[in-house]
Amino acid sequence: MSYILAIESSCDDTSAAVLRDDLLLSNVIASQKVHEQYGGVVPELASRAHQQNIVPVVDTAIRNAGIEKEQIDAVAFTRGPGLLGSLLVGVSFAKSFAQALGVPLVEVNHLQAHVLSHFIRTPESATPPPQFPLMCLLVSGGHTQILLLHSHFDMELIGQTIDDAAGEAIDKAAKIMDLGYPGGPIIDRLAQQGNADAFQFATPHIAGYDYSFSGIKTSFLYFLRDRLVEEPDFIEHHKADLCASIQKCIMGFLLKKFEKAALQHKVRQVAIAGGVSANSYLRNGIAALGKKHHWQVFVPPFQFCTDNAAMVGIAGHFKYLRGEFADISLPPYTN
Fold first, then answer.
1. Cis peptide before 43, with omega less than 30 degrees from 0?
2. Are residues 309 and 274 part of one domain?
3. Across 177-316, where does the E strand assignment appear?
């Protein structure tokens, strides 16, 4: 039995978690509201907020887990990718904390952690974790990838975006319509009241399983530009339909390629992960594909969709079992 303290600080959420083997004991997240007025994350403000949050967040996670810090066997931390200033706060704290306790460090890749969130066990867990091979659609504000997992860390890249990420495209659409930040949840909420077939936007024809979202953003921008000339209040009068239509365009594009890849590789277990996996259209769409093709579908609980330390902890747990420890000199990386 081992206790892992996990730390996540790759962007604008400061998070710490404690796991006993694969069982989650606590998961604390401190979000940063300061970025809302700027319509996006300001790196310098994010790193300053991490410095303020890291100590109380870690202290709360340990207390909520019902253990003493001396019981911790290893400290797992997000090494990258992410914002350099934000990562430096978490990485520096993890190194100092591990050195003070005399326990090993475990470095974790942020994207792998998102995928491995499906293996977190909680007291409420009702179904066993996925088996391999597992195909996962990883979708976030910065990354869009189709991955074929042969084991916990043997992840084969099947396809990815060649330009913008799906989450970034959704956020851009929200910004164009001046909906606020973060844009993804706002579009998802408004889309529930709209007609997803009201408007059509162009999707690119990319060979293989790769994606491209820059053309969709351009199509959406030019569509609105032309309509606003004819009707200055067009966005306000058609807000719900616009949200539903752009959401269907982007999420439908994601699912179409993913379905093709899963059928080609003959997998029976599929999953989604990353911040955009909280999107209702994507969650319903992957469930429908599972029913259609008799796949077993894994959709993460909402608490594990966005950045959190629990996913870092489960990745750290599997690395700990393999004896894969990090040297204290390792720096964070952004890409």
1. no
2. no
3. 269-273, 296-298
> Which residue type occupies 300?
P
Residues 192 and 235 in one domain: yes
Q: How many domains does the chain have?
A: 2
Distance CA 185, CA 1 (A): 39
Place of tokens 């420890």: 325
Q: Which domain holds residue 259?
A: 134-300
Q: Of 26, 34, 68, which Cα lies nearest the Cα of 50?
A: 34
Report the side by side order of strands in the sheet with 74-80.
23-31, 13-20, 3-8, 74-80, 105-109
Nearest to 319 by CA among 102, 157, 27, 78: 78
Mark whether 64 and 14 lie in a shared domain: yes
Instruction: Name residue 303's amino acid.
Output: Q
Give the E-state strand segments of the chain in sequence order: 3-8, 13-20, 23-31, 74-80, 105-109, 134-139, 144-149, 155-160, 269-273, 296-298
Look up the CATH number of the domain holding residue 87.
Answer: 3.30.420.40
Asked if 14 contacts 53 with a C-beta cutoff of 8 angstroms, the reply is yes
Q: What is the pLDDT of residues 268-291, one digit of tens each?
A: 999 999 999 999 999 999 999 999
> What is the phi-psi region of residue 208: left when phi exceeds 0, alpha when psi lies from -120 to 50, beta otherwise?
left
Answer yes or no: do 95 and 172 share one domain.
Answer: no
List of E strands, 253-301:
269-273, 296-298
**pTM passes above 0.90:** yes
Q: Residue 32 — very low, low, confident or very high, per pLDDT cuts 50/70/90?
A: confident
- How many Å apart are CA 105 and CA 327, to the nearest integer? 7
Residue 330, domain member (yes or no) = no
